[in-house]
Every structure is written in C-alpha cells, then in structure tokens.
Design goal:
single chain; 6-stranded mixed β-sheet
C-alpha cells in the first residue's frame, strides 16, 4: 500500500502542504511541501498494537554533507505487530515542532514504499534511501545538527502507528583540517612551528569557511610508530587558523585533530613529516 492511499485513509493528517513561508524566504527555501510524504504526514497516533521498536539513520553515523555533492543515506525502521508488518513510510524533518509553522526542512525518499525485510513472523525492518543535495535541500547553516524521523508503520491486520519523532539522525557540515610543520629540516632541540586551519562547509555560500573558537589537539607520531600522542590543545582563531610551537625531538609526523561537534564531524589532518637533524 502506498502512502497516498494509506495516509488518506487514517485520521489526523497534517496539512503541511499549506505550510506558510514568509515571502522573503520563498525563493531560498526548497519546496519540500510538495512531497507527498510531507504533505500527508499525520501526527502521533496509534491504532491497535503495532509498535516501532528501533530506528537507525545512515547506519548510526552522521550524514556528512559538503557544499556541492549530493549524499545518499538510509532510514531503517524496525516494527512489530502480532499480524506482521505490511509496510512503512518515513522521512527526516527539521524544526521546532511538527506543525505548519514549526517545520523548516524535510529530506524525503523518492521511493513510495520502503523495502521491508522480515526478522520473524511479527517483526520487520523497513528501509528507504534518501538523497540530500546541499545545493537544494540545505538552504541555511542552521539546518546542521539533529533531525527527527517521522514514521508511519502499518500492520497486516490494518493496525498502524504514526510517530512524529520515531528516532533522530545527525546532518553535519563537512569539515577539513590542514597541518604544516616548519622549518624543514629542523635541528634537534630547536622550536617547531605547527600551523593549520579548521574549516567546514557553509551551505549558504557553497564554500568552506573557518570554524572559529574550536579546541583542536596538536599531535605527534614518531617515525617508525603507528600511534599519535597529544601534546596540547589550541583554539582556532577568528578565521579558523591554528598556530603553536613545540620542540623538535625526533623525526616524525605532526598533525592537528578535531573531536567534532553535533553540527560538524571529527577530522584529523594528514600528518606532516619533519626531518630532525
């Protein structure tokens, strides 16, 4: 059964197709309202004993999106009912509340029916693929962070459950980090200057911009070893740049490492080899 027929048959459908968009933003915001998933999505409702037991977005990892390339991810909903699961519809939404004025973004699948795989006679996992295009879907940087999963799961006996927040997933601005150690070569015991820059995708300008006031670890790996050791933590400046000094002890690799935030993924620079003489 497809969502157009299914949602029309149940009560409480939310008319998001009438979502009001201020005139100043109309040309900037993608028309996610035209999606049948969003236009017909209903609010929380349970009929019978159908239950959603698990929701996994992108395999449990953040959805990292840059400035130009589209990214495809999955939303997997596991549900159970004594009669078995007939199907499921799901999408990601962003906003303060699930109503006409609260939603400011939606990422919906192109497929009308999820691919459902039986776990057993009563339980199935239903999966959809969704493609997010930063040039179209991510019209403002404030969309980075936690998104919610709306889901409507149907059982074979006609029961169903609809949840505004069945689960969550992270949509993050892609990050970059560089490192450079100098002078090259350097005399043992002399100062080494390590610079770099932490930047992340700006969806509003389709460029990468410095990520300011962020703690980044300076790390060193001795030549012939495989493990980096943290020497100190330095905050990025107003343009995302990093600079500090350390002492040359042995040949090895210098790098910066960023732990990440809810809006920006962790990233480590490629190690810059420095010859110590």
């Amino acid at each position: 059964m497809r969502i157009r027929a299914t949602v029309a048959a149940v009560s409480g459908a939310l008319a998001l197709s009438a979502l009001a968009v201020p005139a100043a933003q109309a040309d900037e915001r993608p028309d996610f309202r035209s999606s049948p998933f969003v236009a017909a999505a209903q609010q929380d409702e349970v009929v019978g004993d159908t239950q959603i037991t698990k929701v996994v977005v992108n395999g449990g990892k953040g959805i990292v999106v840059g400035t130009t390339a589209a990214k495809t991810f999955t939303i997997a909903v596991t549900a159970t009912d004594p009669s078995g699961i007939a199907g499921s519809d799901q999408f990601l939404w962003h906003g303060t509340s699930f109503n006409e004025t609260g939603i400011d973004g939606a990422l919906t699948p192109e497929q009308e029916d999820a691919d459902c795989v039986k776990v057993n006679a009563t339980t199935s996992t239903c999966t959809v693929s969704v493609t997010v295009d930063p040039q179209i879907d991510l019209y403002k940087n404030a969309l980075a962070g936690t998104w919610k999963v709306w889901a409507l799961t149907r059982a074979n006996d006609g029961d169903y459950v609809s949840k505004e927040v069945a689960g969550t997933g992270l949509v993050q601005r892609a990050s970059k980090l560089t490192a450079n150690a100098s002078p090259e070569p350097v005399v043992k015991g002399k100062p080494v200057t390590i610079t770099g820059k932490l930047s992340r995708a700006n969806w509003e300008t389709s460029t990468y911009a410095g990520y300011t006031a962020q703690p980044v670890k300076l790390q060193f790996r001795k030549a012939g070893t495989t493990t980096y050791s943290t020497l100190k933590t330095v905050n990025t400046n107003s343009t995302g740049n990093l600079s500090t000094t350390s002492t040359a002890v042995s040949d090895g690799y210098w790098r910066w490492s960023f732990a990440g935030t809810s809006t920006t993924p962790a990233v480590s620079a490629a190690g810059d080899y420095l010859d110590v003489r």
